[in-house]
Amino acid sequence: MRWMDRLRRACVTLFRRGSETQRLDAEMRFHLEQEINERVARGASPEDARKAAMREFGNPTLLRDEARRSWSWAWLETMARDVRFGTRALMRSPGFTVTSIAVMALCIGATTCLFTVLRAVLLEPLPFRDPDKLVMVYEHFQNNLSENPYNPVASGDFYEWKAKTHGFEDMAAWQSWSFNVSDDQGKLPEVAEAAAGSWNLFRLLGVAPVHGRDFTEDEDRVGRAPVAMLTWSLFQRRFGGDTSIVGKQVYLDAKPYTIVGVLPAWFAYPNARVQLWVPYASVKTAQSIHWPDNHDSNVVARMKPDVSLQTAISEVSALQYRIHMENLTQPVTEDALARPMIDDVVDGVKTPLLVMMGAVGCMLLIGCLNVSNLLVARGAARQKEMAIRGALGAGRLALLREQMTETMILCVCGGALGLLLAVTGARWLMLHWHGLPRAESVHIDGVVVLFAAGVVCLTAILAGLLPALSATNRSVLGSLQDSARAVSGGVSKARLRKVLLMAEIALTVVLLLASGLLLKSFIRLRTTDLGCTSENVLTMGYSLPRSEYSKPEQKVAFSEALLERVRRLPGVRAAGLGTVVPGAGWGGDRVFLIPGHPSDAQHSPDAVQRWVDPGYFNALQIPLISGRLFDNHDRLDHSNYVIISKELAQRYFPGEDPLHKSIVMGTNPTSKKDTYEIVGVVGDTLYRVGQHVKATAYFPMLSGNPDFRRATLVVRTDGDPLQFAIPLQKEIGALDPQLPVVDVLTIPQIVGESTENQSFTASLVLAFAVLSLLLAGVGLYGVLSYLVTQRLTEIGIRIALGAQRSQVLGLVLRDGMRPVVVGMAVGVGGGIAVASLIRSLLYGTNTVDPVVFAGMISMLLVVAAVASAAPAWRASSVEPMQALRTE
Amino acid sequence: MGKPNDLVQGTLGLLILKTLSLEPKHGWAIAKRIQQISNEVLQVQQGSLYPALQRLEQQGWIRSKWGETETGRQARFYSLTAAGKAQLEKERKEWNRLSAAIDLVVES
After folding, report:
1. Which helix (H) or strand (E) holds A679?
2. A56 contact residues in B (CB cutoff 8 A)
3. Interface test with A, best of B36, B40, B57 (most A CBs within 10 A)
4. What ipTM goes with this model?
5. Nearest to B50 among A2, A24, A34 (CB)
6. Residue B73 resides in a domain
7. Smallest Cα distance from A265 to chain B, Å
């Protein structure tokens, strides 16, 4: 029970130390009284007895302190005293305190905020069962040497893999889809992003529906009664969380689907935009489900506990090679690849997030250096105080501890404010960064708080230790002498400050350069010429449900009626229809053959496919280079014409005139249906900003071809195109009130959506860089002001002896600019190294971009000049008599 | 009547534990007792008793509570805990070993 006694004592001495001290005093008093009484009883006079007793006893105060020290809380008492002293000292210089706390709050807050996001997105395991065992399997063309070797999987290949390989515990596939959702009367139509997943997907992931059940194997076959699962958000939003909806029907593309289950609220795979799930086979046809070359699906696999990924994937690869050899005339891949599922989910934001984390780390370091600098200045001002206290017997350790406590107070206050900042910042990022995967899992918890505490300790050590050491290591005599004749004192401290400043400048330059490059790359992206006009164009998507528009004539009639109505609207300059507009994405490609050209199945020509109406090119102002555009006669059975892009012409018809030649889509050279005559060549467009130009083939939309589902209405208007959104929507509603529209966007909005990651990276890194520049400027100003104050007498003497004011100005400026120039040289070196690290994020921008480098360096120089101008000016306007009289 | 020396200081804990092993005592009584038993040779600086008592209590070897002296005064009485008894045994053995060794060296 000894430990219980000890614990009890520890508690008593901690929480009731006041009464314990009183008790000790009472005991000692009693002791003395007893002693005095005894002596009096032996015959001594009371006065003598008291003196003798006191002599015997010793110094009660000292003994009491000694006794108290044996309580195990001495350190706490010392700390409380240090904190009290520290707070008092900080209160005396509110300017310094507020500045340092603000700097620390900003730096710690930004670091914690990014860590919160980074941890949720990159570090936390996926919310599935045994997530380490989950991998994504892809196909791979061996001649694909690009940055992204991962090719989506064809459903035919997936089913072969699943049936014939045994290295994985299980494999599941899913593909993106979209539906017009409505109720049974066709009311409340909306377009919902959806996904089609194989029946075992949810079991493989370890996700159980909260209501109802998931798909059965039998439901996941072509031609079965259609079923659907709702995600939590659609369940809450559209069905009010009414659990009786399970078993009832929802109309998808005007076809009734039975709702079999509801997914849990946390389930947001592949992303939070997906609203509902249908079985994988339900979006396939009896033929297409076996195609080995229609790369449209993602495959998730779970590794067996005793089979390595290497072994498992090589089995799939071998099988894929066999499929390839059996289908030599088709573009079937030769190989399969796998990567962890988490890498797949965070693909595209991993590098940006790491870059931002790096930037914020740099800013934190700069903040520390800045506070460190301020502390050195403070230390210099308190040199005499330190010396006197040292002379009075304060140990160096005690002084050091006191100084560190002060820094710690600053950092803890800063950290607390920073944590608040981090909470706000993380929430803001989560709401505004739409491209961020797993944003829903961003949250502040114990780990984040612990991280913030760690950063606080780190900053305290970084910022405080050096100044504290330098402030306390002066010999007493030296210090006192130094301040007695302060003519040009504090040389070593000035050197320390200059070194700190240099490091600060170097880091700032690195940040500035990185942000400059990212910004330039971002601007290049945003101002990329898509190949079409980007002004005054509104696009609006819709998909005609197959069940109601099954015949080509119905589709064509709808398209023509819509265009006619839209073109009649006042303010509409041109209108057209297309499947996917420039910048809005890949939209599907297909290989083709050119009769008369040697064919090589391995390198068969390949083009992105678009269906457009005759007015499309005019509406988007895509230039016609040769031949003709479509006209209203290119329709239905009379529509085997194709317009090709310049890239396609140059790439596959080098040195020939492609007009009136024909191409055969697909791999069957004798297919009449797939043979198209080239009637025109148009300018290139980009399918997505930041990507290379891709050969594109345009087919007449008025063919009524069933190969496309989504159509986009493109309208060029007078004035602000967004004002036409409602009138256009009304025209569509007038034709078919059950048809919802989606993605009502201008071209700049389309570009903006696809450059969101870059936008966040560039603007956040720039913000950090600007803050760092500000900090560096303040740091420089501080150092120079300090130097000038230190050298006031010296400057006074110089001026008295006849130095010109311009010379003094130059002297101070030179002093200030030297660390700036050295820091800049170091920083440029670091900047070049960092630039090559972030090369993958740069679009159309050289890693050593002269404009960026020159711009950023001159920006820094301007800030440095401004920061040093004020102290230099003050130095040059010193009145010699006054300067000599001070001190 | 020598001054309290370092050896005694170092063994103050042992002296207190031994003194308390007979019956609970208050501080002054402990001091008197040590003085008496040692025929006034070991004269503890009386005040230094209190830090030592605090230390022992902190270690869990003794505990204290208020009580009344023969003269009817309130005083703090210290008594040995079970752990304290064990500690006393340990320290006594240690002391015996040490003093025997010193004897050997000094008397040889």
Report:
1. strand A675-682
2. 45-46
3. B57
4. 0.83
5. A24
6. yes
7. 55
Output phi, psi for B2, to 5 deg.
Answer: -80, 165
Task: Inspect the interface and report whether the beta carbons of B27 and A63 lie closer than 8 Å.
Answer: no
The contacts of residue A373 (CB under 8 Å, 6+ apart) are A497, A500, A501, A504, A779, A782, A783
Instruction: Kindly report the nearest CA distance between residue A401 and chain B, in angstroms.
Output: 26
Question: How many C-beta atoms lie closer than 10 Å to residue A714's C-beta?
Answer: 27
Contacts of A63 in chain B (CB under 8 A): 47-48, 50-51
Residue A319's nearest CA partner among A306, A300, A305, A332 is: A332
Question: A572 in helix, strand or coil?
Answer: strand
Chain B contact present for A56, CB below 8 A: yes
Say if CB B58 and CB B48 are below 8 A apart: no
Residue A99 scores a pLDDT above 80: yes
* Structural domain contains residue B1: no
Distance from CA of B28 to the nearest CA of A (A): 5
Q: What is the CATH number of the domain that holds B40?
A: 1.10.10.10
Partners of A182 in the β-ladder: A251
A334 neighbors A324 (Cβ within 8 angstroms): yes
Contacts of B31 in chain A (CB under 8 A): 31
Does the beta-carbon distance from B76 to A26 stay under 8 Å? yes
Nearest CA in chain A to B30: A31
- Please check whether residue A50 touches B, CB under 8 A: no
Query: Domain for residue B88, yes or no?
Result: yes
Q: CA-to-CA distance for A497 and A369, rounded, in angstroms?
A: 9
Strands A606-612 vs A696-700: parallel, antiparallel or unpaired: parallel
Task: Say if the Cβ atoms of B50 and A27 lie within 8 Å.
Answer: yes
Asked if A266 reaches chain B (Cβ–Cβ under 8 Å), the answer is no
Q: How many helices (H) and strands (E) does chain B have?
A: 5, 3
Give per-residue pLDDT as tens, A399-440.
888 888 888 899 999 999 999 999 999 988 888 887 788 887
Q: Which domain holds residue B19?
A: 6-107
CB-CB contact of A123 with A343 (8 Å): no
pLDDT digits (tens, 9 = 90+) for B55-94: 888 888 888 888 888 778 888 889 888 888 998 999 899 8
CA-wise closest residue to A129 among A232, A220, A264, A233: A264
Q: Which of A1, A57, A72 sits opposite B47 (nearest CB)?
A: A57
What is the CB neighbour count within 10 angstroms for residue A114? 24
Residues 6 or more apart from A228 whose CB is under 8 A from it?
A250, A252, A257, A258, A259, A260, A276, A277, A278
| A588–chain B Cβ distance below 8 A for any pair | no
User: Number of folded domains in chain B?
Assistant: 1
Asked if the Cβ–Cβ distance from B54 to A63 is below 8 Å, we say no
> Would you call A66 and B51 a contact, using CB atoms and an 8 Å cutoff?
yes
d(CA A854, CA A860) in angstroms, rounded, equals 10
Show residues of chain B in contact with A22, CB under 8 Å: none
Residue found by looking up tokens 């060549």 in the block: A681
Q: What is the pLDDT of residues A709-768, one digit of tens each?
A: 788 999 999 988 889 999 999 999 899 888 888 888 998 888 888 788 888 888 888 888
Categorize the per-residue pLDDT at A599 as very low, low, confident or very high, splitting at 50, 70 and 90.
confident
Indicate the residue type of A393: G
Q: A673, A681, A699, A677: which is closest to A580 by C-alpha?
A: A699
Instruction: Kindly determine whether residue B54 and residue A3, on different chains, have CB atoms separated by under 8 Å.
Output: no
CA distance A74 to chain B (A): 13
Q: How many helices (H) and strands (E) does chain A have?
A: 27, 22
Tokens of A404: 């560190």
Minimal-distance CA residue of chain B relative to A2: B60
Selection from A374, A460, A446, A378 nearest residue A415 by Cα: A460
- The token duo for B3 is 């001054």
